[in-house]
Amino acid sequence: MVRFPSILSLAAAALFHCAVPLWAVEAVIAPCSIEALHDVRISGEAAGVLLKVPFREGDSVRQGDLLATIDDLEARAALEVAQISYESAKERATSDIEVRYAKKASAVAKADWQQAIAANQQKKKAVSARCS
Residues 5-18: pLDDT tens digits? Predict the structure, then answer.
């Protein structure tokens, strides 16, 4: 139990302008519970396993304080994959290798087609009647 001077004894001392020693007048405060004025619910921006909470229930915190640390290994790995995909797509977009490959493949296909036409023209009856 904690003993404090009562409010009435302090008010009386102030009213009559006299000093009252703290040991002379005491009030007894019984066990009690205290509730916060404001409860705040906090949710994380990303899912993960909670690794560290630097505060205990009831501690005061300020704006900007780190409230908890989560295991963000999966999020960092996904970010790295996305960055690599982005860089790859950016390089493909600025590179003309696929265009040059398509042009060469087209030229090879055209040469094969012309060669097949020439072979068929040399032997007129080389193609069956159904195909002509």
Answer: 455 555 555 555 55
